[in-house]
Design a protein that fits this description.
Elements lengths: L1 E3 L5 E4 L9 H6 L2 H7 L9 E2 L6 E2 L6
Antiparallel strand pairs: 1-2, 3-4
């Protein structure tokens, strides 16, 4: 599993799990997930959608 920033720079990598582990299971037990849950990654605060007052958080996608 790996993560890159907006400039495609590798910022996180995790190796060494069994081949049968599903993506969700791998992520759920990763130190990246733990850091996200603890608020240690300095994600920007939620912002309103363009031309709206609806607040949306930043998310990680695949």
């Amino acid at each position: 599993m790996a993560a890159v920033d907006a400039n495609y720079k590798l910022i996180y990598a995790s190796v060494g799990s069994q081949g049968r582990v599903l993506d969700a299971g791998l992520f759920a037990h990763s130190d990246l997930h733990k850091a996200m849950e603890r608020g240690l990654l300095n994600f920007p605060p939620p912002e309103p959608l363009p031309n709206s007052d609806i607040m949306m958080p930043y998310v990680c996608g695949r």
